[in-house]
Amino acid sequence: MQIHDLVGIGFGPSNIALAVALDEQRHGGRRLDALFIERQPSFAWHPGMLLDQAHMQISFIKDLATLRNPTSRFSFLNYLHEKRRLADFINLKTFYPSRLEFNDYLGWAAAQFDDCCAYGEEVLEVRPECSGDTVSALRVRARHADGRTSERLARHLVVSPGGSANIPEAFRPLHGDARVFHSSRYLAGIERLPRARRIAVLGAGQSAAEIFLDLQGRAEDMQVDLIMRARSIKPSDDSPFVNEIFNAEFIDDVYAASDADRAAMLREFWHTNYACPDLELIQQIYKVSYEQKVRGHTRLRLLRRHEIQDVTADRDGLHLRMSNLHSGAPVLERYDAVVLATGYERDLHRRLLAPLAPWLGDFAVDRNYRVRATADFRPAIFLQGACEDTHGLSDTLLSVTAVRTGEICDALLHAQRQPWPEAARA
């Protein structure tokens, strides 16, 4: 069986950016044989949230390469140049392209690495390959869409699976009910329910706000409730000094801090990334709410300070029993559909790497995102998007992707130069 220098799990923005960084090294004469495995049948970036009016929340300059290498051919500006839209984009006078356009940019970059990405395969687990008492390589097992499985050997691994939908406990028994779906599947989910007229959206972040506004424009007789525990929708703080926490240099400060100081930083800046829509979006929601008062007809409601207690489902709909946290009064509402804009979990790597736990322990990482391992474990394993607790709030965002993948690329090349047991040489 061929042994790859590197296998990457997932081919979203993080691993596309890594492929770009490796491509730069290849042109510099330092080549790694890399293969990426992606569950989706083709490239797609949050396809369930590609709403017509949605735009990026970060500057286009924080693309796949520019902050590491401003001259890269994989920059967003070069993408615009190749698509013959550079002058037109300049005339927009914005740093924030539409999400549709940025998705097209990412797809344009991904397409240039089609020869090293296996689409339509879901990685099931990663197991050790031993040479004597030493783990010398990794066996990556994946399942194809038709149920077949395949295995590949790797000297090193980069795990970038993205986030998994966070489903509140009350809704987990309804797994498989088409009337309940996560925001990551919003467009497909709502299209399957053309007759739904009473819809609840759970959450108070960017996705919840975007979906709330999208629903209000779909049908004039649609009634939509935005349900949140918070007292109000808070805007993201993108002021210059606060935004410095998303600079790549800030990662050194976060990583070097004590556990207590790091936790305090994460708490202090939590609302720069979570449950914080753009101010412009909040103003649009307020304007819609005000115009309803003028008309004397309310079909869009904000149920603030409401908490879900339990959910039951029958042929008549979904029945949400809630508690009004302000008054303590019980609230019961029936809906045709519920959209869970409840964020993501970032622990899929623990399941995929579970067979390696005897060597990897609690999956702690060093500054260069390499999982710490015992001395008899030779492969280097890197995590992307799963290190927020140690590297800061920028870890799950595009903000540091270009710089981070450069650091991982350098660490990979360093690990590759180390001598290998005979069994790992192919």
From TrEMBL:
Keywords: FAD, Flavoprotein, Monooxygenase, NADP, Oxidoreductase. InterPro entries: FAD/NAD-bd_sf, Lys/Orn_oxygenase. Pathway: Siderophore biosynthesis. Belongs to the lysine N(6)-hydroxylase/L-ornithine N(5)-oxygenase family. GO terms for biological process: intracellular iron ion homeostasis. The keyword Protein transport does not apply. GO terms for molecular function: monooxygenase activity. Its cofactor is FAD. This is Ornithine monooxygenase. Transmembrane segments: none annotated. It comes from the Bacteria.
